[in-house]
Every structure is written in structure tokens, then in C-alpha cells.
Amino acid sequence: MFVLINATELIETLNTKFSLYLSSAQISNLARRLESLYQMLFPEGTFDDLRKFLTDLNKELKLNLTSTDIERFLCEFSGELEKARKQIAEGFGKDVIIPTNYTMLTKREESAPYLHGRTLLVFIMIDDKRNWWNARSERVLYRKISQITEFLENKAPKDAKVSFIIRVYRVKVDFLPSYEICRSGDLSIYAWMNEAVRKLGYRDVDDMAKRLKAETQADNVVLLFILHWNHLFFGGCALPAPYWGYGERAIVFFFLFRGGGIGVPMDSRVYVHETLHLFGALDQYLPCTNCVSKFAWPPLGELWPTTTWGWPACMYEQKPCCVMCDPWFCNDVSLTTRGQIGWGDYDKDGVLDPVDPDPRDPRIPGSGGARVEIYITNATIPVGGAGVVRVVLDRAPGGLSGFSLRFTTRTAALLPGYCPPASSCMPADVRIEGVKFPDWAGLSDWRRIDEYTVELKAVDIRDVVRPGAQNVVLAEITVKALTPGVAVASVVNATIDDDSGRPVAVVIKPGIVYVSGCPRPVARVMPRDLNGDGLYEDLNGNGRLDYDDVVRLFRYFDDPAIRECWQLYDFNRNGRLDYDDIVALFRMVR
Fold first, then answer.
1. Contacts by residues 72-75 (CB-CB < 8 Å, ≥ 24 positions apart)
2. Cα(438)–Cα(441) distance, integer angstroms
3. pLDDT in tens, 43-74
4. What are the Cα distances from residue 175, in Å, to 124, 171, 193?
5. Structure confidence at residue 176 (pLDDT)
6. Are strands 485-497 and 3-4 parallel, antiparallel or unpaired?
7. How many CB atoms lie within 10 A of CB 452?
8. For the chain, which domains are there?
9. Phi, psi of 66, rounded to the nearest 5 degrees
10. pTM assigned to the model
């Protein structure tokens, strides 16, 4: 994949290299024509065939280059590109940086301990005095981001429940990159990172990681600083915790190689490589015998030391060909890497190591895999109306003795990560009206913190919820909508104990409360929701579901009161209004 970085630079390079004797005015004119042509032919911003690109460029701009000229350009460009690829593949420099003046922390804290649950990936595009981003490169980066998350989600074990939230920032800093940027352990080399995040409104990198983690309720936060230039020796470098403080961060160079106005973007697996370093993974291109990752979350490094593999075995023998060895050619995540980042099961008891009470002893059971999930059901309610959302424990592998948690709808900061695509993401005013506990809760209590937040607790004194139970309802919350928009219902400070009194690690999946300016009167009759499920089946307003409601939905199907409030009439729950909704309503009549 290639991208045109600077049309003027490319024309000037061709002019100098092949003695075209173009004036400054001619170069400017040709560059403008090239930009216009490029945008028309390559709307995605990239192209795959450099020879064809140069041939077409020569023809359209009438540069009078010979085929020999084009082959010479290709040869020189390809030579530099291969040099860059080889140096990265051979691991020319170690890309995990340890500061020279590091002192051991008394308490281990980090924003990305192991790769389970929801991870916030923060991409910070850096502009400096000589290098700056353009719309073309930004489009390429967004495609890379999609490839990164898809790669990791596909490789992760199901029990790790890996998912991602994405934030992208762009900021200009007053520094010039140094070729020592990924070679030195001197803390002063990386001061520009704090300078960058201060311009985004944060005190430093640690402050940014902590605040974003609180805002998004992510399990992990990783910051990737993307530099819009190339480094011939590195794809990037990682600055993992605990050596660099709380915020896990890495540098990735956007270009593998750039020259003459044309660049080759870094492969998405290089981003994966640096990200996995932050979760504790060691390189596997350097010779290493029984190497323990000191930046893996304890005790994962001791359980999964890296063995003597090393380049070139990874690349040429394909045993193994792993992303921590050669991210340019390899797609696999090795067994030891999986263990170091929390995807391993050392004692083979079916429980992933980070959530296993004793990952060395298969006789001690854990939570049955990764952290279980507390999820909140979605709801669609009209302005002024009320609805019910449920707080649900997706599974209880060790049973359930009790829980406590805080439920809130005061979560406007979460909207960018959870807002439905069709919504304008305006925060809705959704308040809590009441709480109902399920029958299994022999002892239960709740108290109101404010109109938007309540604390709940319950105990299963009759041992109703048995080990292996699924989709256990913890509480039903009645909410009322005062303004239209979207609210995110979430849980914080959740504590779950199984039947043996052991705490169960949980991840939280918030729910969405969509508040519409609906319903509206249909033919002067206000529809009604008969059972609080957010669907308005009583179209004739007589307080019951009957065949006249089906007839009215068919008769007024194209009425704006129906079309513009389609969420209330999506009876087949396929995310749109269609004639099958009429069929579904017909089948609901008893």
C-alpha cells in the first residue's frame, strides 16, 4: 500500500532526479493537477501499484519520463523500502524502553494490566514543526484502527470478552523528533508526551489515562502516540507500566518508509505488536532463554517465560511465525505471548490465569473463565413516560451469595462510546423512579443517592441461584424520561460474591435508554404501551391489544406519526419499520 504524501515533493524529486528542467511555476501547476487527479482516482487515499501510478502520472502530466526512468525510481524506492522492512524484522533495536533512572514502585498500578474486558484505545496524532497530518493519512489511520481491533478480537479467547472503545485526537507539539526517540531510556526524551496531552486539557499522561478510564468505565486504557514520519530502525516502541507510571503508552511511526513525496504506511500488526507490549508481552525476535516479562501483570510473567526462538526462525521457518517476532509478515499470537497478556490457562482448569484464584493449581476452581459480565438492558421510552431497565448478571459459575452496586443514569461522558449510530447523541434527562428486587433476593435494600443514582444490595439467603445459573436478574429499575435524547444506564462499584464467599471479578456493559419525542397521536388517538417494553401496541387507545390495532397500523403505516417514531412500532425488533412489523403485531393478538 502506498500513499501520496506531498505532490509538490514528488514533482520536485522527479525534476531533480531526471533533469526535467521544470520551473517553479511549472512544478506548482503540475502539483495542483496531480492532487486533483489523485483525489479523483484514489478517493480512499491509497494505491497498490507504484509502477502503474508512475506510468499514469507520466502520461497524464506529460512529463516525458522514459520507461528506464520509471524503473530506476522503482528500484531505488524499493531498495530503501526493503531496507526498512528488514531492519524492523530483524529487531534492529529493542522496542521496549526502560528508563535509566527507574526506581521500584511500592504499589503496582497501571492502566492496562491484562487484555480482558473493554479496552479504550486512544490514538494521538502528533503534528510537529516539520511533519503534520493530512486528511489522506487520517483516512488511512482509521482503516488501520479497524484492522487492529478486528485482529485482537478475533485472536482473543471468548472468556476474555475483549472489546474496544476508540478515541482519536490530533495535537501539535513544539518539538522536532529525534532518531534517538525509541533508543534512549532517558525520561527527558519523552517529555513531549506530557506536553501533547496538556494541550488536550490533561495534566500529564497519567492524568489522561485515569480520567478517560473513569469517563468510559473501560477496564483498560492504552495511549498510542502516532508520529507522521518514518524511522528506519523501528516500527515503534512501548513504554510499559510500571516503569513509566500509570498510563500505558507507546509510539508508532505512521510510515514504514517515505521518500520523494510517496510513503508506505506501517502495517497494522506493528500497532498490535506495540499494544501487546503494554499488556506485558515480550519480543520474540531476540535470542532469549527463560526470559521473564517484568512488565506483565503478576504472576503472568513468571508463568509464561519467553523461550529461545528469535529471528530468523520466526520469519523463514514459520515455527512459530508470531506478531511479537515479525509483525510485518506474521499473523499469529504465540502461546507464551497469550500467557503474558492474560489469555493463557497455565493449569488447564478452564479458568484464564488473571482471574484464577491459583493459576498453578487446577484443583482450585475460579469463576469459570474471564470476569463475568453485569449488563443493563436497553429501553425506548417517550418524553414524560416511564420504562424499566434490568440489571443482569450474565452467569454465576460459582453461584451467588449476594451483591452490592451503584446504579446511575448520570453518564453523559459515556455517550460517544455507546450512542446508537442513528442518534444525535444529545444527553437525555432520565431519572430513577423506583427499584424492584427479584424473588430470589431474600434480603434486599436500596437507598437513593440523588435523582439519578441509587445503591443496591441483596443476599440469596435461600440459596436459589445455583452454580451455573445464567442471566440472573439483580434488580429492575423504573426510570422516567424528562427530555429527549440518549442516556446511558450503568453500574459502578459492583461487588459480587459466589456461594463460597469468594469475590467474582466482573465487567460492566452499560445499557442505552433512548428517549424520543414520541409517541404522537395517530389519527387523533394517542397509542399506549401496555406492558412497559417500549413498544406501543395499543394503537386505538382502548387499553387492550386487539385486531383493530393491527388494522390501524396498516392504515396509517405511512403517517409521519408512525414513520418518525418507528422505534415504538418495531415489533419484529430488526431495527427498522417494515411490513413485517404489521405481521408481528397480528401474531401478538390473542
1. 72/17, 73/14, 73/17, 73/260, 74/50
2. 6
3. 888 888 999 999 999 899 999 899 999 999 99
4. 15, 12, 10
5. 65
6. unpaired
7. 18
8. 3-65 (no CATH), 87-103+114-340 (3.40.390), 372-516 (2.60.40.680), 518-590 (no CATH)
9. -85, 165
10. 0.62
